[in-house]
Amino acid sequence: MIQLRNVSRRYGERTAVNAVDLDIPGNTIYGIIGKSGAGKSTLIRLISLLEKPDSGEIRFGEDRVDNLTGDALIGQRRKIGMIFQNFNLFGSRTAGGNIAYPLEISGKPRKETERRVQELLELVGLEGRGNAPVSTLSGGQKQRVAIARALAVEPDILFCDEATSALDPQTTRSILELLKNLQKNMNLSIVMITHQMEVVRDACRSVAVLDEGKIAETGLVADIFSRPQAAVTREFLTHLNPLESIAESSCPDLVRWSHEGGAYILRFRGAVTGEPVLSRLARKFDIDVNIRAGGVQDVSGIAVGTMIADLAGKPDEVAQARAWLESQGVSVEENKE
Ligand SMILES: Nc1ncnc2c1ncn2[C@@H]1O[C@H](COP(=O)(O)OP(=O)(O)OP(=O)(O)O)[C@@H](O)[C@H]1O
């Protein structure tokens, strides 16, 4: 478990991370999502002990780590692996040579290093590619090498900083699948920094939404998807949900399709998705329901439905209908698009 209390980091006049409190559970994949400039990279530099906060405390488990220096700092940093958007591989080395690097500098004997490199290549699905020059690898393969290199020294925590942002959607999915499997099989804690809600949906169990250096909200991904609280979260979901992404999602259940928008966004989860809530709504209230688009996404194994609909009728009837929907576990939001 990583714990941040009142952590701030300023650059001159600019407060990049502002009084952040965060509990990142261990042994899971935790997402931190934010727009460009929200402070994600700064936050990850602080948590990975590359920079010190101006104020506040960071703990790994019981140990306070933000104030460490010397060998104690090096010891804690050994527990952390990192992968990046642009892979940061050594172009002059082969795939295997990159993976061997951290083992070589930690003084592992050559035979052991060779054996471990083979194991790691297998682990990331690159068996037989150890001698390939980095320049001959695809983006997805390069990221697999970077993952293997990060895992070579058996870290407790793997930080992924926009690790799939440079990859196409299919490669992104395969890298996320790999990370999910590694997390499960190695009891790893993974923290994923991203600006893509798809990455949060497809890989993370919990998420923190960062906005202008502050935590806008945190929660289980399925809860955030079905009942977003902060305006910035809704904005992320609006860009992901209503039209294109539903059609592309791995579990499309498209009801209808329209580019004309709709007055309301309805979100619901679990059992509610299977119930004929809208037909009951239309029977119960004197309103017309026009579904513009809708679908069900798989969010960490939980079905989360999103529907864009018009609810037309007298204002008080529509207000009552909205209140009834909320009482049935359906979150109703005006569509600002
Ligand atoms: N080393 C630095 N010196 C000065 N300002 C910085 C530094 N690092 C970050 N900032 C500022 O802090 C704010 C947050 O930046 P940060 O890179 O953490 O955001 P981000 O969410 O990672 O954005 P992006 O996705 O664009 O990288 C920005 O206004 C940025 O200009």
From TrEMBL:
SUPFAM superfamilies: ACT-like, P-loop containing nucleoside triphosphate hydrolases. One of its GO terms (biological process) is amino acid transport. Coiled coil: none annotated. It comes from the Bacteria. InterPro entries: AAA+_ATPase, ABC_transporter-like_ATP-bd, ABC_transporter-like_CS, ACT-like_dom_sf, MetN_ABC_transporter-like, NIL_domain, P-loop_NTPase. Residues 2-237 form the ABC transporter domain. GO terms for molecular function: ATP binding; ATP hydrolysis activity. Keywords: Amino-acid transport, ATP-binding, Cell membrane, Membrane, Nucleotide-binding, Translocase, Transport. PANTHER family: AMINO ACID IMPORT ATP-BINDING PROTEIN (PTHR43166), METHIONINE IMPORT ATP-BINDING PROTEIN METN (PTHR43166:SF30). This is ATP-binding cassette domain-containing protein. The lineage of its organism: Bacteria, Pseudomonadati, Spirochaetota, Spirochaetia, Spirochaetales.
